Amino acid sequence: MASPRGPGGRKSYGIRSAIQGYQQTHAARQAIHLASPTTNLARRTIRLASRMPGLAVQATGNAIQAARMASPVVRMARQAMGAARYDAHHRRALGHLRTHVLVLSLLCFVIILARWDISLDRFVQDFTGEGP
Fold first, then answer.
1. Origin, by domain of life (predicted)?
2. Which residues contact 110 (CB under 8 A, 6 or more apart)?
3. Is the distance from CB of 102 to CB of 95 less than 8 angstroms?
4. Distance between CA atoms of residues 122 and 119, nearest Å
5. Would you say the pTM of this structure is higher than 0.70?
6. Which of 12, 65, 75, 88 could link 6 by a cystine bridge, Cβ 3.0 to 4.6 Å?
7. One-letter-per-residue 3-state SS of the chain
8. pLDDT single digits (tens) 12-68
9. How far is it, in rounded angstroms, from Cα 49 to Cα 73?
10. Quick check: 117 pLDDT over 70?
């Protein structure tokens, strides 16, 4: 059996064990203090769970309302995706279309010059400021 005497032969009154006990008590108090919000939340959750059917209906209603509000955004996103897909697949066709528009514009320009009975050489001379 161990002797109750500490270092130096003096009697130890368990100061170390008292300090350890105080530290453990303090740590336990802190743990209880830290756990109390969680405990309160658990109690509230239990109270709410007893009224769960009404809350479930309300949550379902909120989800339906959120889906209704999100549907225009989803529609716009689908349109944007479709436009991006169109752009990716038809970029070459759009390039051809631009070429056709340019050719048609030049053709219209030539027709207008012919209609006004203006020669292209005279138009270039008037436009550049050179000539007689």
1. Bacteria
2. 120
3. no
4. 5
5. no
6. 12
7. CCCCECHHHCECCCHHHHHHHHHHHHHHHHHHHHHHHHHHHHHHHHHHHHCHHHHHHHHHHHHHHHHHHHHHHHHHHHHHHHHHHHHHHCHHHHHHHHHHHHHHHHHHHHHHHHHCCCCHHHHHHHHHCCCC
8. 556 666 677 777 777 776 776 666 666 666 666 656 655 666 655 566 666 666 666
9. 34
10. no
| Start-to-end CA span in the chain (Å) | 132
Structure tokens at 131: 């000539």
Alpha carbons 84 and 79: distance in angstroms, whole number: 9
Q: Where are the domains of the chain?
A: 90-132
- Residue 116 is encoded by which pair of tokens? 């006004």
Q: Phi and psi dihedrals of 95, rounded to 5?
A: -60, -45
